[in-house]
Amino acid sequence: MKGNPISHTYPEVFIIESLTLEDEELNRFEGKILYDILKLSGKNPRYYYFRTKDELVLLAQLFRESDYRFLHISCHGTDMHIQTTLDHVSYIEFAEIFEGLLRNRRLFISACAVGNELFSTVVFGRNKGMYSIAGPIENIEFSKAIGLWGAFYTKAFSVSQGYVKNEVIRSAIQNLCNLFDIRFYWSWHDTYNKLHRVEEIRSISQSQIRSATRTRARSARKQPVPNKSGELPQEVVSLVHENA
Fold it and tell me: Are the CB atoms for 131 and 104 separated by under 8 Å?
């Protein structure tokens, strides 16, 4: 049966996971827990566990056939490759496996050190029309990763159950960086300027937030206030005319 066009997507999360043998023994299945969280939130996620590069190839095709918009990958990695239980997959190999399959879709990757410009550039280069990639820059322990990703998807889908926009994702990531004191790599397609943009999102300290709040408050106090009839004070109008 012929599948839907690649532009046809559902606002659901397709989760694939590959861990070390030690992780399996200790039952550290981050992706499976995320699946349960999304199900409890009323979503319809899919979850698959894989151990080899060949299985990843099959899952890439399943992801495309699902028409799901969000691909979430839970695994280990380095600044050059992604690790499966039994294999290493270089960034270039990963991009080749998913070539053309991520158009109109978003990739969220929970893997050590994979949130970087090289990975983003290689994957975007093989997927014209891809929306975005996001992932933590540094290593994140299992217990923190569970809270982080659960909170992220809960926040994103609470704003919109349908089309989740770049600004919603950016805001949610910033909040998580503040809460967990981490750094995130955020890469997206600027449709207006037709550019691939990248950003490192860092935590904002409470003192910075208070300073920004005070600045906004001072700016607000300086704004001229209309009178009861809705008109600006005469002295303000006169000043505008003098400087026109």
Answer: yes
